[in-house]
Amino acid sequence: MPDNNELEKTLWAAADKMRSNMDAAEYKHVVLGLIFLKYISDAFNNLYAQLKEGKGEFDGADPEDADEYLAKNIFFVPEKARWQYLQDRAKQPEIGKWIDDAMDAIERINPPLKGVLPKIYADPDLNKVRLGELIDLIGTIGFNQDGHTAQDLLGRVYEYFLGQFADAEGKKGGQFYTPASIVKLLVEMLEPYNGRVYDGCCGSGGMFVQSEKFVLNHQGNIKDLSIFGQESNPTTLRLARMNLAIRGIDAKLELGDTFLNDRHPDLKADFILANPPFNISDWSGEQLRDDARWKYGLPPVGNANYAWLQHFIHKLAPNGTAGIVLANGSMNSNTGGEGEIRKNLIEAGLVDCMVALPAQLFYNTMIPACLWFLARNRRGLAANGGRPAQRDRANKILFIDARKLGTMVNRRNKRLTDHNDGDDNDIALIANTYHAWRNQGGDYADTPGFCKAASLDEVRANNYVLMPGRYVGTEEVEDDGELFADKMNALTAKLAEQFARGDQLQKTIRENLKGIGYEF
Q: Model's pTM, two decimal places?
């Protein structure tokens, strides 16, 4: 979905105007719940019309039989829960109660949606006039937009609104939403064509949605992916279930604390994509001192970063790969034994690639972030399921310094550019660099200031610090023909004029310059 799409922007501006003084954290459930209701009602109506017409495979079918819809993986919507029924009554004061009743009725007849849909519309604090206007606005989605189905547009609008609400909420928004450009980068680098995809802190499900888009964009079959997720916040999990349902993605999403109650205990995933909360101290580490997941060292109770890394390694299949977003401190921290764990992960050959990200990508934190790419098997893999064969990388780690990339989208935030931005494609640059290094026959070369394939000996010499800046060096600059000594002589001559005044600071600078061989 292009970030500059006018439909999404126009709808957001109108919906946000109706918010008035309502908190964004509450309002998002009002809006997203209605978008979801419109989506399932439109999908229902499409099949209802075919069943009513009764041609071909639908000959003799009953359009009011819920089993007909179940067979097509479409939610059955009872008559008084259908969008048109509600929109016809949008201006009446009882509209809030009717929507809550509609959500209840849908959940009763569709067990997968039990406990998922918001029932908040009868709240006396919710302005019913504004609610009616919002229903009319959402009712326009999918009409008179050429080349798109209503469902496709609703999916795009839902995703766009998630991002806008995350921005509006600021710090809290990051708990349910990872910025789209980071998700796209993870997916493009890992290439999840087929197999089991897992996220143990799945938020609103953006990693899964982008994985599905990747498969479809590369002419794959979405049925080749199995989705597994876990989320500790029940409200966020409801957003995820709606987000995936609106895309028609079948997923096994579970509620619970991933560390204390792993709801997928036997899963071994082919792909792991995750953005765990940065540097969390209240992860119940003191209760998990003897956990089998800590194969490479005991993570400190005051920081969960290395607990997340080891949890995801524990979940990887023999040829599995993982892309994990973490705070920059994870690359060089030595507190609480983290340096020793990092050394053990590196010596075990699990660290494949490290990417330093630009600042200001996240809505919820200014903490600089990085991407860890882990792989169980780095000794070379045959081509499989659309992915090319991989070369032996056992004694190397690829470092990519992407801190200079990205473009500002507002005063606070950046994003990584993609194919929608023409020739400026940060995501392709990073992903293609990784693939050229990882894949057999790839045309990879170190680029000073951007990427470097470092040997394990180089990493050992750097005390197992994984910050790309330590390895990629500085970008080559074009020689202007002036010798370094000439430049220093010009600089010292200029300083000499200032030092003639002779204050203490200038004397100190003169002595320091003398110490490195420059006198005047």
A: 0.81
